[in-house]
């Protein structure tokens, strides 16, 4: 079931995490609820069971953490100049003051 989760559900979350991460909190909460529902399904739990331990036991990243990681990796790729030229002016580098 975990393999099914990663191949179907998690892949969609990761694909859209940067775009969806820029939305309002209500939309993010809806995505988180869907993720929690999927986690309960793959672990054969009822809809009222707590999911915190399910994330840990299943070694599945929460959506908000996924968004943070995705954004950090995007910035890292920008700093290392690994992104397409389209993103060259996407960030402004702060200058150090002495």
Q: How is the topology of this model organized?
A:
Layout (H helix, E strand, L loop, with lengths): L1 H19 L4 H18 L9 H7 L4 H17 L19
Helix pairs in contact: 1-2, 1-4
Global morphology: elongated
Number of domains as seen in the coordinates = 1
Question: Low-confidence runs (pLDDT<50, min 5 residues)?
Answer: none
What number is the mean pLDDT?
A: 89
Helix content: 55-70%
Estimate the strand proportion.
Answer: under 5%
Question: How many β strands by DSSP?
Answer: 0
Radius of gyration: 17 Å
* Gap from first CA to last CA: 55 Å
Number of helices: 4
Model description:
The protein is an all-alpha fold. The protein has one domain (2-87). Helices cover 62% and strands 0% of the residues. It has helices spanning 2-20, 25-42, 52-58, 63-79. Helix 1 packs antiparallel against helix 2 (25-42). It is elongated, with a radius of gyration of 17 Å.
């Amino acid at each position: 079931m975990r393999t099914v989760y990663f191949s179907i559900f998690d892949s969609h979350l990761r694909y859209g995490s940067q775009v969806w991460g820029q939305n309002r909190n209500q939309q993010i909460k809806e995505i988180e609820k869907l993720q929690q529902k999927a986690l309960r399904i793959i672990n054969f739990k009822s809809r009222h069971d707590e999911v915190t331990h399910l994330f840990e036991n299943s070694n599945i990243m929460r959506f908000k953490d996924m968004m943070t990681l995705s954004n950090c990796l995007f910035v890292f790729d920008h700093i290392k100049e690994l992104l397409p030229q389209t993103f060259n002016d996407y960030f402004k580098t702060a200058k150090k003051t002495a």
